[in-house]
Every structure is written in C-alpha cells, then in structure tokens.
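Sample entry was shown:

___
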Amino acid sequence: MSDLPSGDGASAGPSLTEEEIRAEAELLDTAERQRTQIRQTTSVYPRMTFEEAYRVQAAWLDIRQARGEQVIGHKIGLTSRAMQQAMNIDTPDSGFLTDAMAFSPGEPIASADFCDLCLEVELAFVLADDLSGSDLGIDDVLDATDHVTAAVELIAARSFRTDPATGRTRTVIDTIADNAADAGIVTGGRPIGPRDADLRWVGAIAYRNGVAEETGLAAGVLDHPANGIVWLARRYAEQGLSLRAGQVILSGSFTRPMPVAPGDEFSFDFGPLGSFSVPIV
C-alpha cells in the first residue's frame, strides 16, 4: 500500500468498496496514459468523502509504483484564500510526486502528453530530515529543510474540469481523487538555504512568449510557504506517517494556473532565486 494519509473530512462510514476505489484509480490512470479525459468521479459517486477521494489517490499511486515509479515528494494545493473560496473549502489538499513526473529546466514539454495542461509558480522545499509531529510550526519546517528552490508545477485534469455534455464542474473531491491535479514538477534557478531570505517576500514573474503573464509573492501561500508543509506534516502525523528526508515538497502556487499551447515559451524569473524556461511543444 502507498504511504499516503487519508483525508481531512469525517465520514459516517465508507460508502465505496475497495473494488470501486481501485476501479476509479484505474480509470484515472488510463485517462492519463491515453491522454483522454473521463467523467468526474462525483458524477458517479456524488456522496464521496474526502477520505474516499484520498483512498482513490492512494490506489492510483499503488498502480504507478507497481510499474516501477518511485515517490520523490508531495504537492500541496488550494493554499490561497481565493482558491479555497472558489472551491468552497477551508483547507488545502495534497498529492504525490514520482520520479516519472520530474522534468528539467529547459526540457521541452509536450502539451499533448497531458490532459488540459496548465502551469503554476511555486517554491519547492527539499527536506534534509524527516518531518513529523502534530505540533509543528514554521521553524520546524525550516529546521528540517536542506534548501528551497524555484519551481513550476504542471497541473492537469484527468477528469473534466467542466463536463462538455452536462456543464457540470468538478468539485474538490474530484480534484483530490485526481492526485490534486498534479502532473509534474520543474525545478531550477539557484537554491537557497531556508533562512537565507524571508520566504514570504520571494516573488516571481511568469512570462509567456516574452510577455509578463503572472506575478506573485510566496506570502500568498497561507502567509508563508512553509505553512502548507506544516499542514501536510501534521496530517501525516495524525496517522503515524512522516515526510521523509530527501523528498521534494511543492508548497503551493502563488499565481493563477496558466493554460498552455504548443509553441508557447514560458520563462520564470524568481529574482535572487534565479530563472529558468519551460518550452511547450
């Protein structure tokens, strides 16, 4: 079984069987491999809970690990107040990162390899030590971090964001089952120590084809980008799990998602943390 925590929401008892959980994970996996979007999970299971959505996510990770993929870290999403209000929730969500999801700066990324690909601007924390505990704070995260680096998350939607037949929009439950929309990570620039800068004031400019498209400050992530990691580590600790040394933790986006098209040339300027490009083919 994958080493992932279950969800935040309380449940009156699981309504999905293990066979249904596994079948939903297999559908999402097939959608990704065939680059074909599927119906939303909650269109079939409208009463699915947070816990069940995370069980689908964990089952999907099991499938990928059985193919030989290795977990390299985690992503944290829905960290901004605007996104939480849009999704009618008051908590972030999380997903997994595997080695098959890691891309290098400047490496061409084929948009056709993903379902409805977008890019988001983030900071990534690389852990030097395991991180666990229900009473962690920002200083604990910084103490456990080897370095912080500029990052871009690739996000995708294996289930329709808006169903073309019904107009139904997907919910946060659908997104969690779909690995919190995570599809990949690009890291680059110049890594810094976790206390070499006030991380709240780290900013970035995202350029599309030479035009500044998005700007933001890392304080947009729960007032400090380490706060998302505090949330995730506490959630793990509740179930006897920990974030592990060497893992990469995407702390949450501080820009809007940017849709991509073949031929787009994205570049990201993180000021003192350096710059890198992501060409789309």
